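Re: the request from the purification team.
They wanted to know what the chain is likely to look like in 3D before they choose a buffer screen. I agreed to run a prediction and write the result into the notebook, where they can find it.
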Amino acid sequence: MTDTNLQIIPLGGLGEFGKNCLAIRWQDDIIVIDAGLMFPESELLGVDIVVPDITYLVENKDKVRGILLTHGHEDHIGGLPWILSEINVPVYGTEFTLAYVEGKLDEHKMLDDSELIEITPKTRFTIGPFTIEPIRVTHSLVDCVAFAIETPVGIIIHTGDFKVDFSPPDGKGFDLHTFAEYGKRGVLALLQDSTNVDRPGYTPSEWSVKPGLDELFSRTKKKLFFSCFSSSIYRIRIAMELAYNHNRKVAVIGRSMVESSEIAQDLGYLDIPNGLLIHPGQINDHSPENVMVLISGTQGEPMSALSRAAVDNHKHAHVLPGDTVVLSSRVIPGNEKSIYRVIDHLYRRDANVIYDDGSHGLIHVSGHASQEEQRLMINLLKPKFFIPVHGDYRNLKKHAELAMATGVVDNALIIENGDVLELNRDDARKNGTVTAGRVCIDSGSAVDVVGDLVIRDRRHLSEDGFLLPILTINKLTGVVESQPELVTRGFVDAENGIMDAAREVIAQTLTNSSAEEKADYGVIKEKIRIDLKRYIQKNTSRRPLIMPVILEI
């Protein structure tokens, strides 16, 4: 690395959706923007979450000065416990974002050892050679910021997740003025959210869902179950306002929904009238037409409150014929099966299910900028270099093309996880790569890492099953005392003749082995495994996991 170049190094979130994490380095100082997670694809069997591989940061831990958080969604803060367990550095975030972070770190018993520093929009702070100004942006969550970072070679702006909403429910609109000021000063590079690059036009304001939801409240005659992302404070606020206007008491059900509502209330983002909230155990004390149940589980998570209510397995939430269930959220790709399974169960209970299929008016809006908002920001900032972030490669490619088509960007660079982009005042180019990838974690633990070998074995077991040949050998004589026992799961039926033939293969292997080989259990187990594998693959085209076991007597 030359001392006159700034490095931008994405470790997650470029070429994929989720686990957003990006390092910016000048000489011996590194700052990190976001520390997210992603949820596993179906082939990652038994894995709970996926976080970025931070080998690069660990190798340079003496140079990492802090982690800056744009907002509190899991794909931006969910990897913090894992990252802070490897490199304990200060974490910078807005008040609401840090409230989420505190709960997460407390759950992992890491809060006392972590340094959390609150930041506010338009208040600059300095980390090493970087002067950083948080700029308020609007999103589906509250208290979100972009970062304008003054570096020795110029100003870098990272938008974080954003849409341009001038009148959100909390009254804290998108700060277009500050972005315009930076555009006048000159911006070296713009890193912009690519999520909705496929969508033309503008993303509607959060308020735009209120008329459609108001109509639903008006025509609902029995209990109303309202489900949205627990972090969608704007949506929760609108739902509570409508419940109050329609004389419905509100019961909040689901751990994440309760926690988010309490944090939002404590920080002033929810102003709940006295007497509006009731305990879930009081639902049946009120007439159905006077109750709204605010419930978590909009993505069909198996143990969520809504999933349990859908199969009548929740202590307080009982969906009865004629009740209405509103899913005010989008279907996250990959969650379709679990969501529609819950919807099917709700229909079996004779509920009226309202979800975002376009047939019930606008009941959900995105939190990400559409094409016109992306163009607006590009035209306002006029960056010398444009770098799309957050999204699959197709999103990054389309976003780069959109930026070039504006006529104000001469150089749009597509980089992916692990690429090293070097910039100075005149030039930007890719120069090498660093280690980047994924770390799979079981049970939400910050330490229970699942290696690729374990994933491979799990996939192997799921596809072909396993076979355990169990031999009993006399320790003194070396003689096999009885016919080998074969234990199999997920492979083939024992009655189809394969098992009898497999026993003959084992017997033949033992016959062809010397006394010395039989005395070495490691050797004889490997010989049995190889011969069985060859026979089974030839006769069944299957490749079960074969693990010979030898018992001494």
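For the purification team: Residues 206-354 form a domain with the Rossmann fold fold (CATH 3.40.50.10710).
Please add any questions underneath this entry.
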